[in-house]
Design brief:
Elements lengths: L8 E5 L4 H17 L4 E7 L4 H7 L3 E5 L11 H23 L3 E4 L5 H10 L4 E5 L6 H6 L5 E4 L13 E3 L12 H11 L7 E4 L7 H9 L1 H5 L4 E5 L5 H10 L6 E4 L5 H7 L2 E4 L3 H10 L3 E3 L9 H10 L5 E2 L2 H15 L3 H13 L5 H13 L2
Parallel strand pairs: 1-2, 1-4, 2-3, 4-5, 5-6, 6-7, 8-9, 8-11, 9-10, 11-12, 12-13
Helix pairs in contact: 1-15, 3-4, 6-10, 7-13, 11-14
């Protein structure tokens, strides 16, 4: 155990997607609020977005040459295996030099070798599982973990019950909803405060099926009495702009490739259309926004469908399958947004599922493990 005079050292590992990176950064910031002298080191995967996002947030990061296995038998998996072995050795070296008190994993394949190496050295570890159905990496790491922080109930099916703590997922800290923000949002996006607003989200890059559904239904949206704030993502921006142009630039559809002020976007929305990533669902819970969820079929182990069903089973959201979205999504949304009673039910029920101060709850558990 460290003396009280020595600064605590924490390694945080996770990445590959924003859903793993943002919680990691939020936990780091919460740790520094508890003790500004804590020394935090991130470990990510070379070439992935954490190698850019983490330094931009003001933290040091080391990279491993790790990547995910292809589920089909391919020659590339030999290279993946070699890189995994290299990553295990590099993770051991990083831990030996840094000498962390605790190692935190927020998911993604990069956290595997780091937490495995920590377990071998009897360093306390904490897993933060964002999804309602855990990934393979976290399932494998659970046996050696001291604490497993989860965002959904019922994960004792996959993890040892005595290690589980329900903390929710850390989200961005500016999502408090106020009437002032709603008014600011109408100005920010050039929207009419007297019309109901559908917020369409597909992540920072874009969701093909959701964008195609909007594009196919622009005439119907244009003739409706509602308005749309449409984040199409960078990959689909040109296609979306062309669709808008072909329909004489509907004044009630505001197109953005990326929305930086998500707090204002949520504030103006009466209904949200989105994929069902763990981070987005946590944001919808905290902001109490009625939503139609279209789970991505392209994620490991169908995580997003399971995340969405956790809301649907509580009458807190509506689910439309990806294969049906192009035909059903917008007509269903136009019908739902006029049903004030159903919107109120969804909003009330999703609000009950929100867990606030998640990053602080997790950070406190990390501090407790430092004393082991």
């Amino acid at each position: 155990m460290k003396s009280k005079q020595q600064s605590k050292k924490i390694i945080i590992s996770g990445g590959g997607t924003g859903g793993h990176i943002f919680p990691a950064i939020a936990i780091a910031r919460a740790l520094l609020k508890i003790d500004s002298k804590i020394n935090i080191l991130f470990v990510g995967a070379n070439g992935r977005m954490e190698m850019e996002k983490v330094p931009a947030a003001g933290f040091e990061i080391k990279g491993l040459p790790v990547s995910g296995f292809n589920r089909k038998l391919t020659i590339n998996n030999i290279k993946v295996l070699i890189n995994l072995l290299k990553s295990l050795q590099r993770a051991k070296n990083i831990i030996s030099r840094f000498k962390p008190d605790v190692v935190v994993g927020t998911g993604g394949y990069v956290s595997g070798p780091v937490l495995y190496a920590a377990n071998k050295k009897n360093i306390p570890t904490l897993i933060q599982e964002q999804n309602s159905y855990p990934g393979i990496t976290n399932k494998l790491l659970a046996k050696g973990a001291n604490k497993i922080c989860v965002a959904y109930k019922g994960l004792e099916k996959y993890f040892p019950n005595e290690k589980i703590l329900l903390t929710g997922n850390p989200i961005r800290g500016d999502l408090e909803m106020t009437e002032e923000k709603r008014n600011e949002g109408f100005v920010e996006f050039g929207l009419d405060p007297n019309k109901k607003t559908i917020l369409v989200l597909g992540g920072s890059l874009g969701a093909r099926t959701i964008n195609q559904a909007v594009e196919a239904n622009i005439p119907g949206l244009k003739s409706s009495n509602i308005q749309v704030l449409w984040q199409c993502g960078k990959l689909y921006h040109e296609s979306a702009k062309e669709s808008m142009s072909n329909n004489d630039q509907p004044e009630n559809i505001v197109l953005r490739d990326f929305i930086f002020r998500m707090d204002l976007a949520y504030a103006v929305s009466d209904l949200v259309i989105s994929r069902a990533g763990a981070g987005t669902i946590s944001e919808l819970c905290v902001t109490a926004r009625p939503s139609i969820l279209v789970p991505s079929p392209n994620v490991a182990e169908d995580h997003q469908t399971k995340n969405a069903m956790a809301l649907v089973e509580n009458d807190a959201a509506l689910l439309i399958e990806d294969v049906e979205a192009e035909i059903k999504l917008i007509p269903v949304a136009l019908e739902l947004i006029e049903n004030d009673n159903k919107l109120k039910i969804y909003s009330g029920n999703i609000k009950k599922l929100a867990i606030h101060n998640s990053a602080e709850l997790i950070a406190n558990e990390v501090i407790k493990l430092c004393a082991i």
